[in-house]
Design goal:
The chain has 458 residues and is mainly α. Helix content is 70%, strand content 1%.
Length: 458
């Protein structure tokens, strides 16, 4: 046998084989487009569409609210139809929505178009996660870490390209950046076209009940009934709370009736607040409440990006098993506490001291981001029944969607309360880590169970 090349060695380190590598390309290209648009969206609506500040606020708020329906809708469909063509369709919808923005400056039409785009964005996120979960199997956490690295590199490339293009300072540049965003979705759809359909325990179970007494045929790319799938080889320790089905019938677990999973998702919406801390809290706090130089703000965001690229893959070990993921909630709590305390201390002392504490806060919240991304991915999968994995992960996707809408309000409230607000936010996030640790219990054999509580008791 010949000596393995660096390409072979790299391929062996990426779970999911050929399809896993292609989906990483999809993720990278998608995020380049998101970086192009994310850096210029407000400028486009201001200078190209001619909207006022209040109109832009309404536009983003309404489209964000509509987008909340994307994850559960996408996850529900993924349990009923093939995943690959569904993901392609969603990418094409996003491309059409981006291009449609170029055709009008009417606020009502822009509301409709951005709402469709937001729905597609959120659905694509959970569908990509579901695809990765199915092709990577037991190595899904490592794949997630590599995927997040590709996301951050893509964002950086898109953001740098947008920054370079904006030196032109013309309305035409904003339009071309929007076209670049649309082209990234088209390219993502083409790359997805080359991927195979991953096995789905949900669709195999559905086929097995379609014709009682007859063996069900498997779809291309899916194992025959009775053969193990990547989903089925991974432990799933959360039994659905639905009543037992009648003899001769199979009822798919319903996440909306699983109070235990809903409770877990509610806690996740709180723990995802690190996103709003970086996008809203750190910049506003640094320029309004500290003596640190304003030039530090973009450098804090660069620091976040660099740390994720360098350390997200090594951090995958904190979610290597369900037991490890549960235990890692304690260092996550410590990171949140440290970040909140550092922000509270950043108002005291000279500019250099303010800068040091802001860098410490940014580092702590980045560590929290990486830890939570790993923990969340693993627990959200193992607590979902394999036969309804799409529906469950779709519900879990609501946590991020809700945070994006409500998170800025929580963070600005912490800013308004001053240093005590940041201490309270850090302590509250740490307390939620403790609640999740109690909720997702270890049975003593390395497997997990969920305490019987409801969302109202959370």
């Amino acid at each position: 046998m010949g000596k393995p090349t660096w390409r072979t060695a790299l391929s062996d380190r990426i779970p999911g084989g050929r399809d896993g590598r292609r989906m990483l390309t999809v993720t990278f290209v998608d995020r380049i487009g998101s970086g192009l648009w994310g850096a210029t969206a407000t400028l486009y609506f201001t200078y190209a569409a001619g909207l006022g500040t209040a109109e832009i606020g309404v536009l983003l708020a309404v489209s964000g609210s509509v987008g909340i329906a994307g994850p559960p809708l996408g996850g529900l469909l993924a349990d009923r139809v093939p995943l690959r063509p569904l993901l392609i369709i969603v990418q094409l919808v996003r491309a059409v929505a981006s291009l449609a923005l170029l055709t009008t400056t009417d606020l009502g039409l822009l509301l409709a178009i951005t709402s469709v785009g937001s729905l597609g964005d959120r659905a694509a996120s959970v569908l990509t996660k579901l695809y990765a979960t199915r092709v990577a199997g037991p190595e899904r956490v490592r794949y997630q870490a590599i995927s997040r690295t590709a996301m951050n590199v893509g964002w950086a490339v898109g953001g740098l390209a947008a920054a370079a293009a904006l030196t032109g300072g013309t309305v035409t540049v904003y339009r071309w950046l929007l076209i670049g965003d649309a082209l990234s979705f088209l390219a993502s759809a083409l790359f997805t076209l080359g991927c195979a359909e991953p096995p789905s325990a949900a669709r195999i179970a559905a086929k097995s009940t379609s014709a009682p007494g007859e063996p069900a045929a498997s779809a291309p790319g899916e194992p025959a009934p009775g053969e193990p799938t990547p989903d089925e080889t991974a432990p799933s320790e959360s039994a659905p709370s639905d009543p037992a089905p009648a003899p001769g019938k199979t009822t798919a677990p319903n996440p909306w009736r699983d109070r235990r999973y809903l409770t877990y998702t509610a806690g996740e919406a709180v723990l995802f607040l690190d996103d709003s801390v970086f996008k809203v809290g750190l910049p506003l706090w640094a320029v309004t409440a500290t003596s640190a130089p304003h030039q530090l703000v973009p450098l804090l965001l660069v620091l976040n990006n660099v740390l994720v690229v360098l350390f997200q893959v090594p951090f995958a070990r904190f979610g290597a098993t369900p037991h490890t993921a549960r235990t890692s909630l304690w260092p996550l709590a410590g990171a949140f506490l440290l970040g909140g305390a550092a922000l509270a201390a950043s108002t005291v002392g000279a500019p250099w001291l303010a800068a040091v504490t802001l860098v410490l806060a940014a580092t702590a919240f980045t560590v929290a981001e990486m830890l939570h991304a790993t923990i969340s991915w693993e627990l959200s999968v193992v607590l979902a029944p394999p036969t309804a994995q799409g529906a469950y992960l779709g519900v879990h996707g609501l946590a991020q969607a809700v945070q994006r809408s409500a998170g800025p309000l929580a963070v600005t409230a912490a800013i308004a309360a001053g240093p005590l607000g940041w201490l309270g936010l850090g302590a509250g996030l740490a307390a939620m880590c403790g609640a999740q640790h109690h909720l997702v219990r270890d049975r003593g054999d390395g497997a997990l169970s969920v305490a019987p509580v409801t969302v109202s008791e959370h």
